[in-house]
Amino acid sequence: MNISDDELLALVGRALRTTEPVPDRVVTGARAAWTWRTIDEELAELVFDSAQELTGVRSEDTARQLTFRAPGVEIEVMVVDDGARRIVGQLIPPGNYTVRLAVGDEVLDQQCDRLGRFTFEPVPLGPVRISILGADGGHVVSTEWVLL
Amino acid sequence: MEAQELLRRVIDGDERAWGEVVDRFAGLVWSVARSYRLSSAATEDVVQTVWLRLAEHAARIRQPERLASWLATTTRNESLRVIRGNNRLTPQASVDEYAEPTTPSIEERVTDDVTLQAVLAAFVQLSSDDQQLMRLLCAVPPLDYETISELIGRPIGSIGPTRARCLERLRKLLPPGLDPKAGLP
């Protein structure tokens, strides 16, 4: 007697769940994602990502480029990986802002220069979010979470 | 509680509802992410990005009743982004190679159930496309064919027949007389 398709698929499901369970730290991380919510902040949306462009052949040494946009401000970001990962960016238009990088459990602050430029280095792996804070310390805008 | 109602509570700031959403859908997000054969570190990063996105975007999900589908699609998009933009991926060549076993996860455990062992041994001999379809079809809670069709970029009408052919290939790799109750508590 042979087993049915549904039974076989159920066996595959059980085999995979038994041998590749969701790691505990993944569930813990998912629960903790709640604490990173930014309820009332303006969200800068990802409007360009070189990693999402399907056309053309990517050259190995081309840096990843992303653009986030919110009303009134644009955040241009480039990821350079030459040993230590570095995030180089620019705010358009520039202003007297603190740029905050959240990655993993870390939060790094930096004042952007007169031209709105900023650099973070080294940047650990993991989902990243960039926020812009005004001179009074208040949030102006945050990007969505992205993997760089 | 319906996913829709859970999501509404999440939007209202109910942290317990968030915990329930995570408990209910963690396995689904994990299955979809694993189906892209990224390294375990990249898989975990993708999954975490998806949850951060949901926490941030819960209020913007247009069809709350399709939360499972939103999670699966977001996981797909983030996985593809890693594959296209990141160098931490399994090289594309091996993704398409026949019988390349899925990158083992650090968490990977063995099972002492001989039937499940046999099923796994057969599973890893399937092509990567077959393995991916199996993983998506096994997700809990289940994904509808419409979502699976979007994820793998094939017509919805082809999912059923492909599922049947894929299971047939798997069956050929298995000894007869498998116990369908294997692994059940």
Task: Please explain how this structure is put together.
The complex is a heterodimer of chains A (148) and B (185). Chain A contains 2 helices and 10 strands. With 148 residues, chain A is an alpha+beta fold. In chain A, strands 1, 2, 3, 4, 5, 6, 7, 8, 9 and 10 form a 10-stranded mixed sheet that branches. In chain A, a hairpin with a 2-residue loop joins strand 2 and strand 3. The longest helix of chain A is centred in the first third of the chain and has 15 residues. The mean pLDDT of chain A is 88. The longest helix of chain B has 20 residues. Chain B is an all-alpha fold and 185 residues long. Helices cover 63% and strands 0% of the residues of chain B. In chain B, helix 1 crosses helix 2, helix 2 packs antiparallel against helix 3 and helix 2 crosses helix 4. Chain B is built from 9 helices and no strands. About 8% of the residues of chain B have low confidence. Classes of the chains: A alpha+beta (148), B mainly alpha (185). Chains A and B meet through helix 1, helix 2 and strand 10 of A and helix 2, helix 3, helix 4, helix 6 and helix 7 of B.
Structural key phrases:
heterodimer, A: alpha+beta, ten-stranded mixed beta sheet, B: mainly alpha
Beta-sheet strand percentage of chain A? 35-45%
How many helices of chain B? The count is 9
* Overall average residue pLDDT of chain A: 88
- End-to-end separation of chain A in angstroms reads 51 Å
Structural class of chain B: mainly alpha
Which radius of gyration of chain B do the C-alpha atoms yield?
Answer: 17 Å
Share of helix among residues of chain B? 55-70%
Helix-strand pattern of chain B, N to C?
Answer: HHHHHHHHH
- In helices, the fraction of residues of chain A equals 10-25%
What is the chains' assembly state? heterodimer
Number of strands of chain A: 10
Envelope shape of chain B: globular
Please report the distance between the alpha carbons of the first and last residues of chain B: 25 Å
> In total, how many beta strands of chain B?
0
What is the radius of gyration of chain A computed over CA atoms, rounded to a whole number of angstroms? 20 Å
Category from helices, strands and their pairing of chain A: alpha+beta
The portion of residues forming beta strands of chain B comes to under 5%
Largest interface by residue count? A-B, 51 and 65 residues
Helical segment count of chain A: 2
Largest sheet of chain A: 10 strands, mixed
* Shape by Cα distribution of chain A: elongated
